[in-house]
């Protein structure tokens, strides 16, 4: 009976598992059915999301498999965001991969398998289930990064991601073994109880190694070295996926383990989180200034935004976690929209462009695309009245309320530096001489999806604030 109850709590993961296995069989028999399998994969993600929404509405918080996983509002909120981001990444990919000669049926299957790993990550309440979810997500991601086998950059990106990912997994596993050795358990609750006592040097080292491994997964400095190369080399739809869904899962996992396992020792982990947040903000802002490739610029933008998100975690308060989730939702919309715009930078020969020189004077030749990209850049910079401003505002409000005024001041100052490279994109599009190399996009999915996300990042997004505030506060409350 206990097994049946546990399986009932994992309906979304079970749906995705059977869907991935079924679609893999379809792929084996119909190798050219990539588009059909993508549509079915999006349907499976929608069905899984529907079960998550139902569980969240019913407020059924319960653990599964003797405490290895938990079904709570925080995990369910994260899963919904992950599934939406993954579905968008699936919808925008077929035309791009077909043009690159790489659209194969395995692509949507790998996305589904990665989503299963991410769902386990955000529900994990034990170091064992944490590692299983992390590796399932990571193994799928390594293949996705090198999916365009004819492109040397893609193969290089996959190899770099694999090697550095293995290093990060080793660090995390070593930290987990230290924590287990000194705490006597792999359960977050038991580790938290052990943390109430005097914490020795060995346990502190374990916390440092675990947080270092997780910092790699969220591409936070100083473990960000893989991000620019992988973002540039991977196919753009894959890069859009990496910058959204896996980042949500890794950040949610970081929040859960910090608060549930290490929560009582705030003075130990808070210093680490603050240092990583500030380094990410500064390195992300400064590193992007000299970039000429737009995908590399977005990689440094991702590092920069992770820093702002971690500022909310440094507060260690319910208000701070709620602010993080608000920022995370807005960040996913901004990032996916930006990459959708980059996917529309196509020349007359069918090649995809991604350099600054290619978007020179874009406002004169492709005014709608330039306007959408400008909205995303201004929103990422946190310039009012665009929706990205609200994300930064709530995070800094929570930071000040937690008594971390110096941290908020440094973050606000660094955000001004980061605004420089976002404004550089707008300046090149609107004030440089037209390069006239980008043609009108014939991919209606990209046009409509990009337009909807641009509208969400415009002042129209503020209409979502009441509902977003309620849902994020509800999700954050589950951790306290």
TrEMBL record:
- List the transmembrane segments: 12-29, 36-57, 77-93, 105-124, 161-183, 203-226, 271-290, 297-315, 321-343, 368-390, 396-423
Q: One Pfam family, short name please?
A: Proton_antipo_M
Where is this protein found? Cell membrane; Endomembrane system; Membrane
Give membrane topology per the record.
Multi-pass membrane protein
- Indicate the principal place this protein occupies in or around the cell: membrane
- Say which species the protein is native to: Sphingorhabdus wooponensis
Instruction: Extract the InterPro entries matched here.
Output: NADH-Q_OxRdtase_suN/2, ND/Mrp_TM
- Keyword Cell membrane (UniProt): yes
GO annotations of cellular component type: endomembrane system; plasma membrane
Query: Quaternary form?
Result: NDH-1 is composed of 14 different subunits. Subunits NuoA, H, J, K, L, M, N constitute the membrane sector of the complex.
Select a single GO molecular function from the record's annotations and give it: quinone binding
As for what it does, the entry says: NDH-1 shuttles electrons from NADH, via FMN and iron-sulfur (Fe-S) centers, to quinones in the respiratory chain. The immediate electron acceptor for the enzyme in this species is believed to be ubiquinone. Couples the redox reaction to proton translocation (for every two electrons transferred, four hydrogen ions are translocated across the cytoplasmic membrane), and thus conserves the redox energy in a proton gradient.
Which keywords are on file for this protein?
Cell membrane, Membrane, NAD, Oxidoreductase, Quinone, Translocase, Transmembrane, Transmembrane helix, Transport, Ubiquinone
What EC number(s) would the UniProt record show?
A: 7.1.1.-
Please identify the protein, giving its name as recorded.
NADH-quinone oxidoreductase subunit N
Q: Which catalysed reactions does the entry list for this protein? A: a quinone + NADH + 5 H(+)(in) = a quinol + NAD(+) + 4 H(+)(out)
Residue ranges occupied by any NADH:quinone oxidoreductase/Mrp antiporter transmembrane domain in the UniProt entry: 124-418
Does the entry feature the keyword Cell membrane, yes or no? yes
């Amino acid at each position: 009976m206990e097994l049946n109850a546990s399986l009932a709590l994992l309906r979304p993961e079970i749906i995705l598992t059977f869907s991935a296995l079924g679609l893999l069989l379809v792929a084996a028999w119909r190798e050219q059915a990539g588009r059909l399998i993508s549509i079915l994969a999006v349907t499976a993600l929608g069905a899984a999301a529907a079960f998550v929404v139902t569980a969240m509405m019913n407020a059924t918080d319960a653990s599964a498999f003797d405490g290895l996983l938990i079904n709570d509002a925080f995990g369910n909120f994260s899963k919904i965001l992950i599934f939406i981001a993954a579905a968008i990444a699936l919808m925008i990919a077929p035309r791009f991969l077909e043009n690159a000669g790489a659209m194969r049926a395995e692509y949507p299957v790998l996305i589904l398998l990665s989503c299963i790993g991410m769902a386990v990550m955000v529900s994990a309440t034990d170091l064992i289930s944490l590692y299983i979810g992390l590796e399932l997500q990571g193994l799928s991601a390594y293949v996705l990064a090198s999916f365009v086998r004819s492109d040397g950059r893609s193969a290089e990106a996959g190899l770099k991601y694999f090697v550095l990912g293995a290093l990060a997994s080793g660090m995390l596993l070593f930290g987990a073994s230290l924590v287990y050795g000194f705490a006597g358990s792999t359960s977050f609750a038991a580790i938290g109880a052990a943390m109430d006592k005097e914490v020795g040097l060995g346990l502190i080292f374990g916390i440092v190694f675990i947080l270092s491994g997780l910092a790699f997964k969220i591409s936070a400095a100083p473990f960000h070295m893989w991000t620019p190369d992988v973002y540039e080399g991977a196919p753009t739809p894959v890069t859009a996926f990496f910058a959204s869904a896996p980042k949500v899962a890794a950040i949610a996992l970081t929040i859960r383990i910090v608060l549930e396992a290490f929560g009582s020792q705030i003075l130990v982990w808070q210093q680490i989180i603050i240092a990583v947040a500030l380094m990410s903000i500064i390195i992300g802002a400064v590193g992007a200034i000299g970039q000429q490739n737009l995908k590399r610029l977005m990689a440094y933008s991702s590092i920069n935004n992770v820093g702002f998100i971690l500022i909310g975690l440094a507060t260690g308060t319910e208000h701070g976690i709620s602010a993080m989730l608000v920022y995370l939702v807005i960040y996913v919309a901004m990032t996916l929209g930006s990459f959708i715009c980059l996917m529309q930078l196509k020349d007359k020969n069918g090649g995809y462009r991604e350099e600054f020189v290619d978007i020179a004077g874009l406002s004169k030749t492709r005014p709608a695309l330039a306007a959408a990209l400008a909205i995303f850049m201004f929103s990422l910079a946190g310039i009012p009245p665009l929706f990205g401003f609200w994300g930064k505002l709530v995070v800094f409000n929570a930071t000040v309320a937690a008594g971390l005024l110096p941290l908020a001041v440094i973050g606000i100052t660094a955000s001004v530096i980061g605004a420089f490279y976002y404004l550089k994109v707008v300046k090149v599009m609107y004030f440089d001489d037209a390069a006239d190399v980008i043609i009108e996009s014939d991919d209606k999915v990209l046009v409509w999806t990009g337009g909807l996300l641009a509208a969400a990042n415009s002042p129209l997004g503020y209409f979502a604030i009441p509902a977003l505030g309620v849902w994020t506060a509800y999700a954050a409350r589950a951790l306290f």
